[in-house]
């Protein structure tokens, strides 16, 4: 049976492995490296997280490992359960069991994660992106309170904004996927110097491209056939069509506005990640 792999954060329990009875000797960082080395042999990993055992469980660690593919997770579970792997005692590996009441909305991967997933299934030279438009939407406007306006002393603000439209091309599957993104950052010219303005301009421009790239990948679906061959399905967003009036399209674009300053510089994991809380999963009961 074919498996569908979307460009989204894997949250399904059949893509999540719980590994416990890890030795207390190595550090958490060393265990992370060892676990990644072992389990990445079965497929591309989204994350490996190592946690110390609860006090009632005694010294040691357990880990939560997420795959993009459920088939890869199943193979890894069967091959590694009750095996010593990298330590003297065997570890236990089970598929995650999510509480029925816990549900998460699927979150899109950020652009770096999308590229990692595309490189794994399509190959480094199996896809490309082409920027169709990169438009500077920066503007300047006068803002001030009533007293300042009365004296003619408004506070000058500039918003650094960029819009990007691009397409992701997968030539071996004759597939093209368009994407769009807008990023903006308010700038106070009375507080920011020329160098800061140029840096924010460059960062905002980069973030708009990253946003558009992620948007383009969201419309693609990787299809892994039983034979191991890869196919690609294109699923355009039905609510965004060229038939819409320009005013409606502008409203849709503005929904995608966000400020990189609010979440820290660079592309943020809020687009693709969430805190993997321990209480969302439970360890299987021991036999």
From TrEMBL:
Name the UniProt record assigns to this protein: RAD52 motif-containing protein 1
Name of the coding gene: RDM1
Q: Which InterPro entries match?
A: DSRM_RDM1, Nucleotide-bd_a/b_plait_sf, RBD_domain_sf, RDM1, RDM1_RRM, RRM_dom
* Quaternary structure, from the entry: Homodimer.
Report keywords, A-Z.
Cytoplasm, DNA-binding, Nucleus, RNA-binding
At the top level, the lineage of the source is Eukaryota
Has the keyword Cytoplasm been applied to this entry? yes
**GO molecular function list:** DNA binding; RNA binding
Q: What is its main location?
A: cytoplasm
Q: Domain RRM, which positions? A: 15-98
Database matches in PROSITE patterns: RRM
Q: What does the UniProt entry say about where the protein is found?
A: Cytoplasm; Nucleus, Nucleolus
Cite the PANTHER family for this sequence.
Answer: RAD52 MOTIF-CONTAINING PROTEIN 1
């Amino acid at each position: 049976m074919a498996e569908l792999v979307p460009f989204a954060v894997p949250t399904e329990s059949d893509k999540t492995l719980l590994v416990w009875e890890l030795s207390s000797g190595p550090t958490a960082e060393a265990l992370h490296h060892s676990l990644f080395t072992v389990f990445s042999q079965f497929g591309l990993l989204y994350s490996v997280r190592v946690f110390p055992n609860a006090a009632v469980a005694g010294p040691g660690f357990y880990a939560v490992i997420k795959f993009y593919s459920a088939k890869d997770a199943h193979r890894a579970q069967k091959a590694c359960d009750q095996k010593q792997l990298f330590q003297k005692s065997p570890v236990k590996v089970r598929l995650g069991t999510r509480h029925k009441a816990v549900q998460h909305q699927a979150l899109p991967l950020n652009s770096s994660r999308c590229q990692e997933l595309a490189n794994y299934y399509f190959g480094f030279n199996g896809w490309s992106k082409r920027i169709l438009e990169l438009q500077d939407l920066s503007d300047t406007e006068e803002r001030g309170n009533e007293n300042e306006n009365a004296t003619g002393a408004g506070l000058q603000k500039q918003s650094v904004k960029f819009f990007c439209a691009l397409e992701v091309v997968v030539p071996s599957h004759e597939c093209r996927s368009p994407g769009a993104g807008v990023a903006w950052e308010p700038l106070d010219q009375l507080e920011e110097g020329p160098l800061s303005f140029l840096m924010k301009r460059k960062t905002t421009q980069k973030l708009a491209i990253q946003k558009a790239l992620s948007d383009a990948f969201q419309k693609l679906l990787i299809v892994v056939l039983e034979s191991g061959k890869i196919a690609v399905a294109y699923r355009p967003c039905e609510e965004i069509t060229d038939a819409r009036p320009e005013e409606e399209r502008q409203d849709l674009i503005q929904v995608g506005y966000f400020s990189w300053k609010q979440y820290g510089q660079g592309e943020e994991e809020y687009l693709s990640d969430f805190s993997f809380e321990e209480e969302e999963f439970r360890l299987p009961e021991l036999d």
